From TrEMBL:
Species in which this protein is naturally found: Terricaulis silvestris
Protein name in the entry: Prolyl tripeptidyl peptidase
Example GO BP: proteolysis
Enzyme Commission number, as recorded: 3.4.14.12
Domain Peptidase S9 prolyl oligopeptidase catalytic stretches: 446-656
One Pfam family it belongs to: Peptidase_S9
Annotated Pro residues bias: 730-739
């Protein structure tokens, strides 16, 4: 909850058998009953599409738009506040589904993005909220559009960044909602003499006011734009603060703006910055964590409250009205809450509640009459979990070998903690789930991975290793150039903590991840092959040199500093030493290796080299490719299929129970190159792997397409092919959080 103290919830009691003894003068007792297996939580309830989610109020507060499946694909729906049981779909996408949307300032139009090809190029569409007309594209295909500004002062338009001219340096346009007519506001030129902008900030009138540039030393220079469209340097954010400092919004008078800022302090504070002099005043801060969320008055952008998240979110009010809202929501709700949408007059909010044992729920909060506040349930996101045996999550602080504190989250299997001390009565198998990014964090709350794995009989732990965001500048920068180094050691230290504290069985630990988490899983098997019994990796960048070389041009200098510098021989050597691709021959434990063929960071060439190394040495391998997916599994059929395979893989490795694959494989588009016989039904997706040609000493791997994004082979690879750097197939891998 917003301000309540952290609780440790007791797990369910383990079944206890009665001792039966035959002794003189005593009656023989009946044999103990066999333990009853806990109810199985269906994978579909955890990883299928939510029934409804993503609610947003119209500016007038009279309608709610939300996302929900339509014929199995997520689409945009609208309902009236006065008739919430009469929702209707206003889009009819049949492919990858709508993932993000916003109300236009006119209150009649909804704007949404589609990633039709799974390559990150988001196309912007508009549709009438009343369903009176068909959806229309506002931006061209094969270009990435991002909404930068919506304003009541310009209800007929939207300001977007669009990289149609230059994929690396998007221009800024105003787009007319009715016709799609574009007016270019800024041509974002990048030359040897003048750097381009990586981000733009508008004021409440949709006027361009700030532009941010990432400099060669990794710092971010913030430029202001005067009334005559002239730019001038306002302030510089040092490299060390670049990921934790950013402008938020302009105040109503346009003379100042709000900013999260860690410059000159360790933890990011909420500050107000004079837009002409750069003078700063601190409005709110926490001694333990960065400010992570802010309430802004929708009419003025005046800050009302802020949150900081160390072990779990804590809200602090900046005025009495906000304190009354926090107190009311705290009394009404069991889980933590977040405010996700507010009407223009601030009379109605949408509030989302969730917690480890509370799957997300959306509420309509009527607060126009302060004396008669009212909270009404809009919908449960996943009603199938209402009666599920969800397990408590316990925040823990783990000391790393060099003294850093690692905030982590532990979930135990049902029945493991009989006395409620957040420790199992006896050690259990453990799954470590490192987060992606890596410039993000794990947090307290409902976590589908935790609930799924705990339900199958495993302890689950998420570790905020160094380099995670939210814990201050020093902790964040302790992760610089530590991929596969001290970041990986943090995960090993967490495993050792779990073993020492009787939580984990030392010989039954697995590591599972996606993106950077997938890299950490591969690194676990290559750099510490005896630590983990098995690993599962989806979308892992296995070649750090290629990852850095393919990073976005606008932030590549920061990548040199945060991951490694490919411009020097020493830097390339360090990156090779920490690239799982170069150490594939050291993998001796079972691996589930999966990727989306449209992922630009995890290339098919890297995938094939690692897979062939394991095949040649007969190391346990399950390998999957999803031809229509990218860095994330967007289509629910593919997502459910992957988790079905992962569940059986972990069951074989750690001994937990597994829900039958059954219908989870139906409708999936995937290719199983290895391990198809390990999961009932997976053999239908089997295809013989094409063996990649080993690269000569100074040549790249072949990249001719075999129909699933893989290279065409001409000869068998050696038992342990030595790979050199492989260039990503497209230059836009996941990037650090926007500066």
């Amino acid at each position: 909850m917003g301000t309540k103290r952290i609780r440790v919830w007791a797990g369910a009691l383990a079944a206890l058998g009665l001792l039966g003894t035959a002794a003189c003068g005593q009656r023989e007792r009946a044999p103990a009953a066999a333990p009853v297996a806990p109810p199985t939580i269906a994978r579909a309830d955890l990883f299928g599409e939510p029934v409804r989610f993503g609610a947003q109020l119209s500016p007038r507060g009279d309608r709610v738009a939300f996302l929900a499946p339509r014929d199995g694909v997520t689409n945009l729906w609208v309902m009236s506040v006065g008739a919430m049981d009469e929702a209707r779909a206003v889009t009819d996408d049949r492919a990858r589904g709508v993932r993000a949307f916003a109300w236009a300032a006119d209150g009649a139009t909804l704007l949404y993005q589609l990633d039709d090809q799974g390559d990150g190029n988001l196309r912007l569409y508009a549709v009438d909220a009343g369903g009176a007309s068909e959806a229309r594209a506002l931006t061209p295909a094969r270009a990435r559009a991002e909404i930068v500004g919506l304003s009541a002062a310009d209800p007929g338009g939207v300001v977007v960044s669009l990289n149609q001219r230059d994929a690396a340096w998007p221009d800024l346009f105003r787009v007319e909602l009715a016709t799609g007519a574009q007016t270019r506001l800024v041509r974002n030129a990048n030359t040897a003499a003048v750097r381009g902008f990586s981000r733009f900030v508008l004021d409440r009138q949709n006027r361009l006011r700030l532009g941010l540039k990432t400099l060669a030393d990794g710092s971010v220079e913030v430029f202001a734009r005067d009334a005559n469209a002239r730019w001038y340097s306002l302030l510089t954010i040092p490299f060390e603060d670049a990921l934790s400092s950013q402008p938020l919004a302009f105040d109503a008078d346009g003379r100042s703006f709000l900013m999260l800022d860690s410059t000159g302090r360790d933890r990011a504070a909420l500050v107000r910055v004079d837009a002409y002099t750069a003078a700063k005043s601190v409005l709110g801060e926490s001694a333990r964590a960065d400010v992570s969320d802010v309430w802004l008055d929708p009419a003025t952008n005046a800050p009302e409250a802020f949150a900081a998240n160390y072990l779990r979110p804590e809200w602090r009010a900046l005025d009495q009205d906000a304190q009354a809202d926090i107190d009311y929501l705290d009394r009404q709700l069991t889980g933590d809450f977040s405010v996700v949408s507010r009407s223009a007059d601030d009379a109605r909010w949408i509030v989302v509640e969730e917690g480890p044992t509370v799957a997300a729920r959306s509420y309509l909060y009527d607060r126009g009459d302060r004396a008669n506040r009212r909270l009404s349930l809009l919908f449960r996101h996943r009603p199938g979990l209402d009666q599920a045996p969800l397990q408590a999550m316990t925040p823990v602080e783990i000391e790393a070998r060099d003294g850093l504190t690692l905030v982590s989250y532990l979930t135990l299997p049902i029945g493991a903690d009989a006395n409620g001390d957040a420790r199992p009565e006896s050690a259990v198998p453990l799954v470590i789930v490192p987060h992606g990014g890596p410039w993000s964090r794990d947090a307290y709350g409902f976590n589908a991975m935790h609930q799924w794995l705990a339900n199958r009989g495993y302890a689950v732990m998420s570790v905020n290793f160094r380099g995670s965001t939210g814990f201050g500048e020093a902790f964040l920068n302790a992760g610089n150039r530590e991929w596969g180094g001290r970041m990986q050691e943090d995960l090993l230290d967490a495993v050792q903590w779990a073993v020492t504290n009787g939580i984990a069985q030392a010989d039954r630990v697995a590591i599972v991840g996606q993106g950077f988490g997938g890299y950490a899983a591969l690194a676990g098997l290559t750099f510490s092959p005896d630590q983990f019994r098995c690993a599962a990796s989806y979308g892992a960048p296995a070649n750090l040199s290629a990852l850095v070389e393919g990073s976005p041009a606008a932030s590549r200098d920061a990548w040199y500093l945060r991951v490694g510098d490919v411009r020097s021989a020493e830097g390339r050597s360090a990156l090779r030493a920490r690239s799982p691709l170069q150490r594939a021959g050291q993998i001796t434990r079972p691996l589930l290796l999966a990727m989306g063929a449209r992922d630009s960071a995890a290339t098919r060439g890297e995938f094939d080299v690692i897979a062939q190394s394991l095949r040649a040495r007969r190391v346990g391998l399950t390998s999957l490719v999803f031809p229509e997916e990218g860095a994330e599994l967007v289509r629910p059929q593919n997502r459910l299929a992957y988790y079905a395979v992962l569940e059986h893989f972990l069951s074989d490795c750690l001994g937990g129970r597994a829900e039958p694959a059954g219908a989870s494989l139906e409708g999936a588009e995937m290719i199983a190159y290895d391990g198809a016989t390990s999961v009932p039904g997976l053999s239908a997706f089997a295809r013989r792997a094409v063996v990649p040609t080993p690269p000569p000493a100074e040549e790249a791997l072949p990249v001719a397409d075999d129909g699933a994004g893989g290279p065409v082979a001409t000869s068998a690879a050696p038992a342990d092919p030595v790979a050199r750097e492989i260039t990503p197939r497209s230059p836009s891998p996941p990037q650090p959080p926007e500066q």
